[in-house]
Amino acid sequence: MATPLFQAPKGTRDVLAPESERQRALIACFAERAIGAGFGQVVTPIFEELGVFERIGEATELVSKEMYAFEDKDGRRLALRPELTASVVRAFVQHRPPTPWRAWYEGPQFRYEKPQAGRYRQFTQVGAEILGTDDPHADVEIIALAWRFYEAIGLTRVSLLMNSLGDPTCRPAYLEALSSYLHERSADLTEQSRATLEVNPLRVLDSKRPPDQEIIDAAPSMADHLTDEVAAHFEAVTQGLEALAIPYRLSPRLVRGLDYYQRTTFEFAADALDSAQNAIGGGGRYDGLAEQLGGPPTPGVGFALGVERMLLACDAEGAFTAPDNSPQVFVVDVTGGAEASALADQLRQHGIRADRGFDQRSMKAQMKLADRSGAAWAVLIGDEELAQGVVTLRDLRGDQGQTTIERRALVERLLARPATNGEP
RNA sequence: GUGGCCGUAGCUCAGUUCGGUAGAGCCCCGCGUUGUGGUCGCGGUUGUCGCGGGUUCAAAUCCCGUCGGUCACCCCA
What we know:
Elements: H1 19-36, E1 40-41, E2 47-49, H2 50-54, H3 61-64, E3 69-71, E4 77-80, H4 85-95, E5 101-110, E6 122-131, H5 136-153, E7 158-164, H6 171-184, H7 191-199, H8 201-204, H9 210-217, H10 228-243, E8 249-250, E9 262-270, E10 279-285, H11 289-292, E11 300-306, H12 307-317, E12 329-333, H13 338-349, E13 354-356, H14 363-373, E14 377-381, H15 383-388, E15 390-395, E16 402-406, H16 410-416
Parallel strand pairs: 1-5, 7-8, 12-13, 12-14
Antiparallel strand pairs: 2-4, 3-4, 5-6, 6-11, 7-9, 9-10, 10-11, 14-15, 15-16
Helix pairs in contact: 1-5, 5-10
This protein binds one RNA strand of 77 nucleotides through strand 6, strand 10, strand 11, helix 12 and helix 14.
């Protein structure tokens, strides 16, 4: 294919119907469930002051290397949001809604990454956050909302991985133990892991490079270093999941890339995707974030789910197909086109999805369009019908053939006989 | 960011090994019925062979660069 003059920038893509309808339906399904669980939508700007994201961790790659940062004409330092939790917490700090505050969101995010299947520079997430409580039941509610959503869209091959990362009272000691252990074995680590070790020892546990595995397997575990309080919290969360019969796997090496996470962290892996991009969602507790963004100390927990990746997983499982938005009626007008305008408008005003042909094409050509549109009915109008004030109503999918009816009875007739799109 | 693979009509792809100047199926358009789709038959349109440069009498085919996609690492949704 010859390269067009312009194309969507690298790592971005156009989504056309029906896939776009499918994406919209997925988000609508999430919205319905979030609202049903007491969450209200929060809509934040697509760009923020750069500092909002810098606070989420200099050691975080998405902050240090992947941000679309820029200056506006007044020299303000801004960035396209690389994730949404920081924006939501910033909004919380700015507006101080009563707690516990439950918010859900959806929208695009931007990271300057090397694109791959399921990895885009602009991608869409849906998510939810609860701020103002560190009750383990909040963690459970958050996880359950995500889990039940996967169920609702028909994804069955999803694994929930759980871990606790400790908190500021116990993590430093663990980090020290881990760091000294890794330093002892650093000669056997890959070069990349040695570099990571200096920036964030925790992240070394994430390495998938084979030479590192043996060392990582024998590394000290966070689970053994949790304070009683943090361990009890985690225990309460897992018990809560069990009470709801939500299956999970403990994953002591689950680290996650955002530095603000502490205590509960979790990730959802789509087992139907065999690529490395199988994480279709993740989240955790970020009790220190509100304070870092200049607000009062406020615990928080939330998750974000990748819309594009969920849809890839749905493809792999044959789940959540695009909704059928075909017109119910296609108007075929061989008198010039004005009657099609009038009839389609009338049908649409009554909530009937209607399409029509253009360019005064032959009846044969318009019938072909009618068929391809997926419409259940064709409404035909020619010179004879026009003269007599009638239309011909033709059943395109069933065996009702065609009849001539009074033009003024058309709407009533169609409303009385719902379309049977796609049905034989 | 590092490394591998791929890039031919709107779509899926053949042709690239051993250079000779572009093909199939689908889609689309028309006709078979000057008022009727889906099946069938007949006919037809469509390509700077991703882009740029080089080698050659000659390049889709070989070489270099570049852009885009993809896979692994990385990162993560």
